[in-house]
Amino acid sequence: SQFIIIIIMASASCNTEPSSSASASAAERRARRMAKLQELSLRRNEARKLNHQEVVEEDRRNKLPANFEQKRKREEWREEEEKKRKEAEDRGEDYDRLRMLEWTAEEVEKWERKKKKKNADPGFSTYEAAGLRQYQALTKKMKPDMEHYEEQKEKLGEEFFPDMNTLVDVTRKDSEEAVDKLVADVEKQIEKRAKFSRRRGFNDDADIDYINERNMRFNKKAERFYGKYTAEIKQNLERGTAV
Question: Which residues of 22-44 are buried (b: 16+ CB within 10 A; e: fewer)?
Answer without folding.
Answer: eeeeeeeeeeeeeeeeeeeeeee
